[in-house]
Write a structure and sequence with these properties.
By secondary structure, the chain is α/β, with parallel strands linked by helices. Helix content is 25%, strand content 27%. It has 2 domains: 105 residues, Urease, subunit C, domain 1 (Roll); 270 residues, Alpha-Beta Barrel (TIM Barrel). Helix 4 links the parallel strand 9 and strand 10. The longest helix has 16 residues. The two termini are 31 Å apart. Bound molecules: zinc ion. Zinc ion binds next to loops.
């Protein structure tokens, strides 16, 4: 007896859509094919597309610290409502996630999350000895190195300190791009993942330095450009790195088209409207995005800006390869039953009222995207169906190789 059977769906298997049934038991995909076995629950996915669980590999959920804007529970609700089954959460919380005690605390609070999750460990100029011990730490996706941006005690900007971090890193290091850091990563033969690439110069440089160096582009940089976005949204469009002019936007799309970038991450960075509505430069940088990542990108698929199989590489398969996530990213027997079911033809209108994030707004308010998440299945259980959250938070920390 199966726990859940997904029947008649167009399933994304081996890079293409196949009409198959999927049988799920005890949180795992146990059978793919034509299934006649009984199941406690049956989901009819006729005319729907069944994808591996989609991941957002860059979110800021603000807990501990600014839980007025977001917490791990509310952020995870937003993820699940948007068809996201796993998130990688950033360490620049208050206090920051730079020691085992804080990491444990986050894992504990993470028990209240709806989606599966992993947390970045923050590098500082002093904690290099800990960085060596992260290899098999459950729920740890990598090391985040903040270099050259204003993040208080997480800032590591001296060349010596950056070298020390790379020398001792036992996991993927995620950084904001600078040539200097890419060169250091190469010198120590370490993998580095460059977050939110936004300029044509970065695209050109990074596309010539592939291999151990991978990079991310955000959905908002692929959907908005300056000065339009600032005319429409004012400081709500303010983020770091900023939304740039159309020549950069065009080069980001050139990167997508040629498979230069490796991931799409939302950089979900919620801020209260009361803070966003202050006067620049008192306004904080960042915008929410975990709930809209998938509809935004499905809309781009519908507009032939990228193929569905490219999108699945960016938000399912490549995160697995780059970070070494176990048993996820593919619809495969014995893999975890994290599944995102979408209707590529169904439009979704983004409204601030529907945003689950505590901040309660989206830069895409009023936009209609073609392509809607219909169901989010996490560890074999339907957690979102037709825009409704179901059941209790039961998200688990991810396992890494
Ligand atoms: Zn970020």
């Amino acid at each position: 007896m199966l726990d859940l059977k997904i029947k008649n769906g167009n399933c994304f298997i081996n890079g293409q859509l196949e009409k198959q049934d999927i049988g799920i038991k005890s949180g795992k995909i146990v059978y793919i094919g034509n299934i006649n076995v009984d199941s406690k629950e049956v989901f009819d996915a006729e005319n729907l597309i069944v994808l591996p669980g989609c991941m957002d590999t860059q979110v800021h959920f603000r807990e501990p610290g600014s839980t007025d804007a977001e917490d791990l529970n509310s952020g995870s609700k937003a993820a699940v409502m948007g068809g996201i089954t796993s998130v990688f959460e950033m360490p620049n919380t208050n206090p920051p996630t730079t020691n085992f005690e804080e990491f444990e605390k986050k894992l504990n609070i993470g028990k209240g999350m709806y989606c599966n999750h992993a947390f970045y460990f923050g590098a500082t100029a002093e904690n290099y000895q800990i960085l060596e011990k992260l290899k098999n730490l459950k729920g740890c996706c990598g090391i985040k190195l903040f270099a050259g941006s204003s993040t208080g005690n997480l800032l590591v900007d001296k060349e010596d300190d950056i070298e020390t971090v790379f020398k001792h890193a036992s996991k993927e290091v995620a950084i904001s791009s600078t040539r200097k850091i890419v060169k250091i990563a190469k010198r120590f033969n370490k993998k580095a993942h460059i977050l939110h690439v936004t300029t044509k110069e970065e695209v050109d440089f990074l596309s010539q330095n592939k291999g151990n160096i991978t990079f991310e582009i955000t959905p908002q940089h692929l959907t908005m450009y300056a000065p339009d976005c600032y005319e429409k949204l004012g400081s709500y469009a303010q983020m770091n790195p900023p939304i740039r002019d159309k020549s950069h936007y065009d080069r980001l799309w050139y990167a997508i088209k040629n498979n230069y970038n490796d991931t799409i991450g939302s950089d979900h960075a919620p801020h209260l409207r009361s803070n966003k509505e202050k006067t620049y430069p008192d306004t904080p940088s960042g915008m929410p995005g975990v709930q809209t990542l998938l509809p935004v990108m499905l809309n781009h698929v519908n507009n032939n800006r990228l193929k569905l199989e490219q999108l699945i590489k960016l938000i399912c398969e490549n995160p697995v390869k780059i970070f070494g996530i176990k048993n996820k990213g593919y619809l495969k027997e014995s893999y975890d039953a994290d599944i995102t079911i979408v209707d590529l033809n169904k439009p979704i209108k983004i409204k601030n009222d529907d945003i689950q994030s505590k901040c309660g707004w989206s830069p895409f308010h009023g936009y209609t995207f073609k392509g809607s998440p219909i169901a989010t299945i996490i560890n074999g259980k339907i957690k979102m169906l037709n825009g409704k959250l179901i059941g209790q938070p039961e998200g688990l920390p991810l396992d890494f190789n």
